[in-house]
Write a structure and sequence with these properties.
The complex is a heterotrimer of chains A (about 260), B (about 110) and C (about 350).
Chain A lengths: L4 E2 L5 E2 L4 H21 L8 H28 L6 H7 L9 H4 L5 H22 L5 H29 L3 H14 L3 H4 L4 H8 L10 H14 L22 H16 L6
Antiparallel strand pairs in A: 1-2
Chain B lengths: L24 E7 L7 E7 L3 H12 L7 E6 L39
Antiparallel strand pairs in B: 1-2, 1-3
Chain C lengths: L18 H7 L5 H4 L3 H6 L12 H26 L8 H26 L5 H9 L16 H22 L5 H29 L3 H20 L14 H7 L7 H19 L9 E3 L4 E3 L5 H8 L6 H14 L1 H24 L1
Antiparallel strand pairs in C: 1-2
The chains are: A mainly alpha (about 260), B alpha+beta (about 110), C mainly alpha (about 350).
Chain lengths: ~260, ~110, ~350
């Protein structure tokens, strides 16, 4: 069994509560990506896209909000959604680096959304059969939403890939730029292994093949090349080691709440 | 960023040539869960039918489930003339909007 | 009216929650008996539809008004959009995203309504971007604190709804129908704004000060939203007269402003917010609140370009539009390629 690990909040993630750590990874992925997607509002290429990206951000925010209180109830801290979102330091966040990266252009975002939503579709398909009722429920609802996200991203990747020379070029660059962040999504970290063993979670590596296949089909339809394997890959997100943008993201996310300790909003 | 306000262009200044072709207009029809038929709810712009359908779902149904959506290019709709004695229109090929698009847009007045 | 700690959900907080809305949105279609003549339809309080004959000036006035209304919704996304990433709780973040999204939707409904009059949305956006068409000047003010999001919902949406409810009876069908839908949604937004302030005023001293400060800055601009005085002497030669005759405008700016003050003052009292007008007092004789004079010089100065955010709002909007040009072009190119493929398939068949 794994050694008990303490986070800086003094929470002991003992061997009997590994699912909390696993679920926190899922919730933080959704929360951080929702925060990034919300930045597109008033900045999207067409007003219809402001609406669509707003919808997707709301869905992901909803997924995070559904998970956080449950995690608080099983990790023994009783923390609520705002405790998780507003009061944790960077080291206690378990999202992958992919979702914390700053926004690029629209091609970058549709590429990130394509990969992330394809992953989420496989993830939630598997989690809909989780041994944990709450997790299965959240996954069932999320699955409908993330299928829509995948659909949206796919439509755009095809149009941008098979659009103009400029959009094609930008899509090629986007596929290159996102590629170092993908391995991490499918790493089997400690918490996933235990959660999967308990039938609560699913091994990330088990999702990889179907996700890669699906993305490859879309990329092909978009007349785009598969990028060369990247020379480096991101790592550490699930252990709380993040990349440069994460600190700034948290500063913006948490600043007001932290400036008025104890206040209700 | 400069704090100085940019003065608005003089009224009557020629509009810069637009090189971008705008997305076509689509009319949207929705049949609700308990509805009997599709009802016209409005219009939107989209480059193609697939995106038109997606946008219609976001805009006119706020992604409710169980609703049926039709999108039709405005150009593909032929309408009847509002009055028989109206000599303006050829009944064989009427469009749903009376006025042609790209008509001159009226200038702004300071406070409406 | 309200309990100590609970906002009464059944009490009307804005004009869309009163009988005025129901009356305005109820429409009895008598076109069969009245016929298609423009003047007859107007006289019978019936709706003009896109295919009807109409005076050119009627059409122009509507395009301008509807377009500016649409532009206001789009530009109005920015002051609150500014606070989405910094919302102090996840619930507030979700509500704010939904609100800003609704505003995008309202802009789209309104552009659609304008387009039925024979103008292209892209042309209208060009005119917004180069300053030939305007948006509501209320959005030229900055959102300095979180409490500003509350003040905007409570006061700005409240004023907007007060203006919009009568428009649900506007003579032009597509505009009236868009207004009915918009009012319903904005009613919710206004309630959310009030709720933000309600929570702040029951919070820490710093939160209370934040709420009071926001109200101090937004009250007068909200009153100015109804437009310059247009009754009595001021009515001569203005737009109000003609717009009223055509059923585009139903009440004068001054009437709507008075209705708004009458509705908001009791709400401010419930909130515990002191409105920044020493002349505000109930007048028994008139049956209305007396209130001070809006600084119309400041209003015109801001409208004409010298507000805190005019340059920023347009620059932001233009940048989003220009940065997105390659995306829109790509979508067009793809559609054209697909259409060509379809054609080739058909001719090969």
């Amino acid at each position: 069994m794994t050694e008990p690990v303490t986070d800086t909040g003094g929470v002991v993630q003992s061997a009997t509560k590994p699912c909390a750590a696993y679920l926190l990874g899922l919730a933080d992925d959704a929360m951080v990506y929702a925060q990034r997607l919300a930045e597109w509002m008033t900045n999207a290429p067409q007003i219809e896209e402001d609406m669509a990206l707003g919808n997707i951000a709301l869905d992901l925010l909803g997924q995070a909000r559904a998970l956080y209180p449950y995690i608080g109830s099983i990790d023994g801290t009783g923390r609520g959604e705002d405790d998780f979102a507003m009061q944790r330091v960077e080291r206690d966040w378990r999202n992958v680096h992919l979702v914390e990266q700053e926004r690029g252009d629209f091609a970058d975002e549709m590429t990130r959304l394509l990969w992330f939503s394809a992953y989420q579709v496989e993830l939630h398909t598997a989690l809909a059969g989780s041994a944990d009722e709450v997790v299965a429920g959240v996954a069932g609802k999320a699955l409908k939403e993330v299928r829509y996200h995948l659909d949206h991203a796919s439509l755009w990747v095809v149009r941008l890939g098979d659009g103009t020379d400029e959009s094609h070029r930008r899509m090629e660059a986007a596929l290159e730029r996102v590629s170092p962040y993908l391995d991490e999504v499918f790493d089997d970290d400690e918490a996933s292994v235990v959660a999967a063993g308990l039938g609560v979670g699913v091994l990330p590596s088990s999702l990889r093949e179907r996700v890669v296949e699906h993305v490859a089909r879309v990329v092909e339809q978009a007349t785009l090349p598969v990028p060369e394997p990247s020379t480096w890959r991101s790592r550490g997100g699930r252990a709380g080691i993040h990349s440069k943008p994460m600190g700034y993201l948290l500063a913006e996310l948490q600043h007001i709440a932290r400036s008025y300790p104890g206040a209700t909003w | 960023m400069s704090g100085a306000a940019t003065p608005p262009t003089e009224a009557g200044a020629p509009s810069p040539a637009r090189t971008e072709r705008s997305w076509p207009l689509w009319e949207v029809f929705v049949r609700g869960k308990r509805g009997l038929s599709h009802v016209h709810v409005g219009s939107l712009h989209a480059p193609d039918a697939e995106l038109a359908l997606r946008n219609a779902r976001d805009l006119y149904t706020r992604r409710q489930e169980g609703v049926s959506i039709w999108v039709v290019k405005a150009d593909d709709i032929t309408a009847s003339s509002p009055a028989e004695k109206d000599s303006f229109f050829d009944p064989a090929a009427d469009k749903i909007y009376r006025h042609p698009t790209f008509y001159d847009v009226p200038e702004d007045v300071e406070y409406l | 009216m309200y309990g100590n700690d609970v906002i009464d959900p059944t009490q009307p907080l804005n004009a869309a929650e009163t009988d005025a809305y129901d009356a305005a949105s109820a429409h009895e279609d008598q076109r069969d008996t009245v016929g298609d003549d423009f003047d007859a339809l107007i006289a019978a309080d019936q709706r003009i539809e896109p295919r009807d004959a109409m005076p050119e000036k009627y059409r122009e006035t509507l395009i301008r008004q509807i377009a500016q209304h649409a532009h206001s919704e789009i530009i109005g996304m920015q002051p609150e959009g500014n606070w989405i990433t910094r919302a102090p709780s996840l619930r507030r973040k979700a509500i704010l995203i939904a609100k800003v999204q609704d505003e995008a939707g309202h802009g789209l409904y309104l552009y659609s309504a304008a387009e039925t009059l024979g103008v292209d949305r892209a042309e209208l956006l060009d005119r917004l971007h180069d300053g030939r068409q305007k948006y509501s000047s209320i959005f030229n003010y900055p959102t300095l604190t979180w409490a500003d999001c509350g003040a905007i919902g409570w006061l700005v949406d409240g004023a907007a709804i007060m203006n919009q409810v009568p428009l649900c009876r506007c003579s032009y069908g597509p505009y009236a129908r868009a207004m009915i839908r918009v009012c319903k949604e904005e009613s919710f937004h206004q309630r959310q704004g009030f709720e933000i302030l309600w929570t702040l005023m029951r919070g820490t001293p710093e939160q209370q000060a934040m709420a009071q400060d926001a109200a101090d800055r937004w009250w007068w601009p909200a009153l100015a939203m109804f437009g310059p005085p247009d009754t009595g002497e001021a009515a001569k030669g203005g737009h109000t007269e003609q717009s009223m005759a055509w059923g585009i405008k139903r009440f004068s700016n001054d009437d709507l402003r008075q209705k708004f003050v009458d509705m908001m003052v009791p709400q401010a009292e419930k909130l515990g917010i002191v409105l920044p007008d020493p002349e505000l007092r109930w007048n028994d004789e008139r049956g209305h609140y007396d209130f001070g004079e809006v600084d119309w010089d400041e209003f015109w100065r801001v409208l004409r370009g010298d507000g805190a955010c005019n340059a920023e709002r347009i620059a932001h909007r233009r940048r989003a539009h220009e940065d997105g040009a390659w995306v829109r072009e790509a979508a067009n190119a793809y559609a054209a390629k697909q259409a060509l493929k379809e054609q080739q398939k058909e001719s090969a068949a």
